[in-house]
Design a protein that fits this description.
alpha+beta, Protein Transport Mog1p, Chain A, seven-stranded antiparallel β-sheet, 3 helices, about 30% strand
Length: about 200
Amino acid sequence: MKIKINGIDKELTFADVEWQQVDSMPEDPPNSVPIMKQTPESVCFVLIYQIDGTMPFDKPQEVIDGIHGALQEDQGLIEVETINDKKRAIYSIVKTMMEENQLQYCLTLHFEYKGKFFNVTGFFSPNGMTGTRETIIYEMARREGIVDEKGNGWCADPYDPKYKKGLLRNLSEDKNIDVKFPLNPLSECRKFANELIGQL
């Protein structure tokens, strides 16, 4: 799929044919482009638009601290990634427990393109049966002795071992696990972020 974003002088291309541009809602920011994708395991919605001002591309700790300060008990920080060389981008992924014990992963990505700044907000939710990724990786970690019988070793904040609030990231949410579960919402979230940044 190819999309045109106001302020970017080239089309952005995404390999998956499931991505489709959809109609904007009245509350969406002006000139924003909403796209959506649905697979047997995920429902993905992303909004892309130009913004004013700059972003802390070289200050990921500020972003981490800000997220830690804002997280609720039903949320957890998965990761913050920054690119600050020829390309300038920073993104965070936060999970939220939704109804029926389903985890939604929210992507917040800011990037610079030719002196202009853009925001990407994405919601990556499960479609159909959930929990397979967590169950399989938990059992593997338990068998290998990484997680004990009480579950110790399964969850931790990725940046501060003393941070205990909310839904801490678990071992199944490591980026190296994505390849085993390519249609999982978290895998889709990272794939989209990397695909977009790769075109800047």
